[in-house]
Structures
1.
Amino acid sequence: MPSSEIVLLLLNDCASHLGDAVEVQVRDNGAGIPQEIMDKLFQPFFTTKPTGEGTGLGLSISYEIVTAQHGGAITVDSRLGEFTKFAVRLPRRSNVAAAIAAETDVGS
């Protein structure tokens, strides 16, 4: 993306309460992500940056934390030339929090 291009991030009303989960969405008005790249977004070490400028671990690590550690989900919606939207959905009470609470209750 050229440095003079302005990308708008829409953050108004980005959090939704979905009963037992909360979802946060971030959407831009950028160039979008081609389908062949979307299929690789969460793979470790995948990057579109030149060699030496990125590790390709950011989205992979984020995906692991959200899904495996908190039982949530990350989804991506993108249309070329229009937008990209990431949605992160987390349970209000993760398995980790429930396990900690259970350990605390045992000692009571």
2.
Amino acid sequence: MDRDSALPDRCIACNEPAEGHRLRRKLHCSPAAWKVGASLTPFLAFLAATWLDLPKAALAFWPLVIVAVVANLFVRKSLKFEVGVCKRHEEQRFALLAISWLCFGGIFVGAFMHPVFMLLALIGLLVVLALQSLLGGVQALRLADLTREHAWLAGAGEAFRATLPELN
């Protein structure tokens, strides 16, 4: 899609009319070579230190991770835009967010009451987050690539993608 164009007023998950319900999003993407290099460098340094029997050099793992995370803040590209969401997916998103916050609250309450309650709250949170990742089409949207003129989005519903001119 054109970087400066607006997405249609359709739900990005199911392509139903959004009726003006919009979510603001700021998505980020990093170059593929950077992702691979930044991900592998700390591990390769650790493996080299282990193989060369340099235990103090292996301590460089965490500083390298921190440097890679901070450097990513400067390397990544970002795009701000609004996406349409139908009433059904907006309600689903709100319900999953509310359940997630209740589970987080349960973790803190359980920590003061009994460790078993905290464990149950953690399990509940994991189940909710798994459901949210499976069912939350709005959260699955991601920026695949970004140039000065174009933005490539991934993760939108198939019906929505089929209505975009570039994908027909």
